[in-house]
Amino acid sequence: MGEEHVESISNQTSSVCVDTFGGKIHIEWDPEAAVTPLGQLPFFINFLKVSGLYDAFLEECPLKYISPNAPTKEDVLGTLVLSILAGQTRYSHITAIRCDGVNPNLMGMTKVVSEDSARRALKAIEEEPGVAWLEAQLARVTHPALSIGPWILDIDTTVKCLYGNQEGAVVGYNPGKPGRPCHSYHGYFMANTRLALTAEVNAGNHFTSRHVSPGLWQLLDALSEKERPVFIRGDASFGVEPVLAEAEERGIHYLAKLRLTRNVKRLIQKLFSSGDWVDAGQGFTGTESTLKLTGWSRSRRVVVIRRELKDEIALVDEHAPKQLSFAFIETIDKVKRYEYAVLVTSLQDEVLTIAQHYRDRADMENCFDELKNQWGWGGYTTQDIKRCRFISRMVALVYNWWSLFVRIANPTKHHEAITSRPLLLHAVAKQTKHSGQTCLTITSNHAKSANVQVVLIALTAFLKQIKEYAEHLTIAERMTMIISHAFRLILQKSSAQFPILITNTGFI
Predict the structure, then answer these.
(1) How big is the CA angle at 410 (ends 425 and 488), to the nearest 5 degrees?
(2) Contacts of 175 (CB under 8 A, 6+ apart)
(3) pLDDT digit string (tens) for 286-342?
(4) What's the whole-model pTM score?
(5) Residue 290, CB-side half-sphere exposure with 13 Å CA sphere
(6) How far, in Å, are 276, 313, 340, 445 from residue 310 at the CA level?
(7) Are 271 and 281 in contact, with CB atoms under 8 Å apart?
(8) Each residue of 6-44: b (16+ CB within 10 Å) or e?
(9) Hey, where are the domains in the chain?
C-alpha cells in the first residue's frame, strides 16, 4: 500500500501555487533535470585527475566484489568521497547526495550507492591491506612536501565521544565529557601547512605517549634522511623519558612540555630568584638550565618561561554539584603573580625562538577542531573499530586533497572548510548537452562570486600547464610541482643564511 500511495502522489500535478510576501508564485518540480548544489566541484575533480591522485586511489583499493549485482568500486569510493567533501558526518547523510545529476558522472561513477552499500564495502576490506592502502595514499600527498624544505612534526591526541556499544568505546581521558566512552585519535601533522601525515584510531583509554609512540616511530622510520623533520613537537604527554630517549637514539630533535612535578617546581623556585631572564615574546620572559629528573637517563636542556599576571585572579570550582563556586584572590600590591611553563628540548636555539616554537604548537588544535567539527572525524561511526580506522584516514586524505586545492587558489593562508566550501564548492549548476558538447552553467550566490570566478579560471590554467607534461611525469613529480605552487609564498620567504622552520606564523 505504501508503494501505491507514493505512485499516486507522483502522478498528481507537478505544479502548486503558494502565497508569499512577494506575491503569488507557481512552483514546479523537475526531477529529471541535471543539476547539482556542488556546482564548482568539477574544478576540484580536474585537480584530482591532473594530479593522478584519484586514479591511484581507485586502482590500489583492495576492495573486491564477486557478485555481478554488486556496485562497482568506482561507485562506492566515489560516493564516500562526495559525502566527505559535502561536509557530511554520517553514513545516513549519503541519501542527500543521491539525486545529484552532474558530479557522479564527472567522478567516473554510474550512480551514488546507498548508505548500506558504503558500510558493507568498508566491512568487506581486510584491515591490514585497507590501512596500508590508505597510508600509501596519504604518503603520496604529503611526502613530496617533506623534501621541499625543513619542517616540524606536530603530534597530539584527541577524543571522539561515543554513545553506543562500539568496539573500543572505553572511558579514558575525556576533558569535555568526563566519564563518556570514546575513541582516541592520534594525529600527526606537518606544521603550518596543516597537512595530515596520518591518523590512528584506538580505544578510548589508549591516549598516552606510550600508545602514540609506536605509530610515531613507524612514521619516522619510513622517511628518508632528507624527509625527516627538523624536530618533533608535543605537549606534556611527550615530555617523558621513553619518547625523549627514542628521539635522541634516532638523532631527531624534540620540543615538549614538562609536567609540574616536585623536582620541576624546585627548579622553577631556584630560577625565579637566580635565573638570567630574557625576553621570550608575547609578554613572556624566559631562562634556561639543565635538569635530570628521576627516571631520566641523562640531563637535558630545559627552558622556563613566565608571564606576570596583571589583573585580579579568579578561582572557579567547576566540580561544584549545583552551582559554580567563584571567588577572587586579593594579594598585596608588591606581590607579583606569574603563569609559567617548563619546556624540554634538544634544540640549541635561543630562548625566544624556543618559546615561539612551542606557542606555534597551538595550531595543532585548529587542525583537530576542523577535522572533528567540519569534516568527518566526529561521525561515520560503526560498531567495529576497523571501519572507523578506514574512514578516519579517508577523511584525512580528502581533507589533504581539498587543503592543497584551496591553497593553490589562495596561497596566502589556510581556509577552513566552513569558509572554503561556500566559496569554492557550493554553487547551483545545471548541465546541458548539445551537439556532442557538455556545458555546465554555474550560478553562485556568494558575495565574492566574481572574485572566485577569476581565481578558478587561473587555477584551471595552472592545472592545464601541468597536464601538458603529465604523461612524462610520475605522480610524485606532479605533486612536487603542485605543492611548490600551493606553498609558493612560504617558500619565497626562505633564506640560505638562516635555517627555515615551518611554524604557525610562517617561516622563521
Answers:
(1) 140
(2) none
(3) 999 999 999 899 999 999 999 887 766 555 555 554 555 545 555 555 567 778 899
(4) 0.88
(5) 6
(6) 22, 9, 14, 47
(7) no
(8) eeeeeeeeeeeeeeeeeeeeeeeeeeeeebbbbbbbbbb
(9) 241-250+257-350
